[in-house]
Amino acid sequence: xxxxxxxxxxxxxKWSEEKLDLxxxxxxxxxxxxxxxxxxxLAAYYYIDAFAGSVRPKAKDDEQRYIEGSPLRAxxxxxxxxxxxxxxxSPQRIERVQSLRxxxxxxxxxxxxxxCNEVLVNEIIPKIPQSSKKRAFVFLDPYGLQVEWETxxxxxxxxxxxxxxxxxxxxxxxxxxxxQSPDPEVxxxxxxVMGNTDWINQIYREPASxxxxxxxxxxxTLSRETIQAEWLSLLYTKQLGNLFEYVSKPVLMRNxxxxxxxxxxxxxxxxxxxxxxxxxxxxxxxxxxx
Length: 290
Known about the structure:
By secondary structure, the chain is an alpha/beta fold. The protein has helices at residues 14-37, 70-75, 91-98, 100-103, 116-124, 149-157, 169-175, 184-194, 198-203, 229-240, 271-289, and strands at residues 3-4, 10-12, 44-49, 58-59, 62-66, 83-88, 109-113, 134-140, 161-168, 211-212, 218-219, 246-247, 251-254, 260-268. The chain has two domains: 3-176 and 229-289, Vaccinia Virus protein VP39 (Rossmann fold); 186-226, no CATH class. β10 (211-212) and β11 (218-219) form a beta hairpin. It is globular.
């Protein structure tokens, strides 16, 4: 959950800075490759940010230090994208994004206020069908569980989009009660976000041999505590593999207490995109462990 400064700016932790650094590294590689493709078959390529309003967040460890958010890092990427399509539901955040037009007058910036699922499916995806010879990089960095599975499916169906998604592991685990099976409303919400909830039956199943209670009745023991962030992350990337030909290994984003908050991964129909992502993620993990 974001904290806000005196002027309503996001205040982000070290893990968010790491996420933005990984994004920046990939964007540089992606833009070089796509710009080269324009010499032969590619008509144009775009940067799409579905939660674009955090333009210059402040660092949690030093609130006098501003950090360049994802829109800025995309706009500063060389070679330039042919267009930048920014989405946000918050009027205040949209106002911040609009100020970027003055800062980057040579960039083609389109701004879409509204829910990212509706905007992506109804307004943006129709602009980039596979037949158009256009491609897009889509950054999905929700604050929780806002990105719906049908939106991911629609992006995958274009065969024209690579998606860089920060999946909220914390958002899922918070919805899973430890003492009983989830309510139908919770299962429905998780289904909308993950595309499948068969796994819930696995973690709330009865053990092979039930113990008898004092009243002689069989009482199932729930195994909710066995669910691990790593398992959930791999489950989500496996689900993505049903929609995209290639999916990267996830990088787990941890807070200062080493708790996993998000899992960052790439999904694409292009194998090279995943190789580049895995290389970037591997170097990041090696540096983090050194």
